[in-house]
Amino acid sequence: MTLVQLRNAVTIAGLDDRALRVRAVEAASTYDDDMLIMVTHAYMTSASRKGARTSRRTLEAYALAVRDFVRWAQDSGVQLLRPGRRDGGRYVAHLQTRPSLGRGRSGHLSAATAAGYVAGARALYRALSWAGATDAHPFQDAHVAPDPTPGIVKNPPYMHEIDAVLPHCDARLAALLLLCAHAGLRVSEALDVRRADLHGASLTVRGKGSKVRRVPLGRRVRSALDTLPPVDDGGRLFDWKYAQATYRMRKAFRAAGHGEAWRGFHAARKHSGTRLYTATRDFTRVGLFLGHASVDTTRRYVAVQDDDVAAEVEFF
């Protein structure tokens, strides 16, 4: 059978069973990471629980993970279709001892990063099983030990830095920072805001998993957005990719004298969660505001003072 040139995951998902298996087996046998990524994307968008609603960021993260695992497997002499029963654990150990290559970082990969790579590798084997190429599941008993240090300790919220940095931002960059720090948006959500999403004192946000929520906007956020012209005919307020937004914000932090304090946009989102919890003392309301599915997630976004219950226990 002549194999047609396959350009994307949609084409792969439309193959008949035999052609799909042949393509997957060939890619795994030759460590063709590009094709294995497309097979994984085809599975994720057509056969996983979320199907076509799988987010672009998830697909991008899994692509990075598949590429990393395939290259490790090739270098380590692991046959992708017939891995050893301990190979999943070997890859986990490799991740846990691998130096971090992030800019300005030292030490090993974080537990969260390692877990993300393993999740992508697991998705690859689900995809290969779906394609009929193998029944192997080398990561079935492989686990990444969680980091015992809470995320709120490793990456605490910005506090006074927000007001210090805002004067060093142009109007559009200031609006982006306020959307994260005062409206509690993820940076991906903020970069996707359109003029039509604004409804007076609230904003319609399309979040993770295509979930839609309505977020109240404070006066500073409203003022920053009201005068911001759209950047295209679709009404988008930002035309930056994540890396471009990060570059601009990092530069503003340096200009404000807080270059060493820069910890990414997530610390700005934690700023809003911490301030709202301080005002309400209600994790449920904070979780709804941030768009969390679980209050347990919200607790990781709030910096509670060490002496938060000191007054309550004073006269026990």
Automatic annotation (TrEMBL):
Annotated keywords: DNA integration, DNA recombination, DNA-binding
Pfam families named in the record: Phage_int_SAM_1 (PF02899), Phage_integrase (PF00589)
PROSITE patterns: TYR_RECOMBINASE
Tyr recombinase domain location: 152-314
The protein's name in its UniProt record: Integrase
Native source species: Deinococcus seoulensis
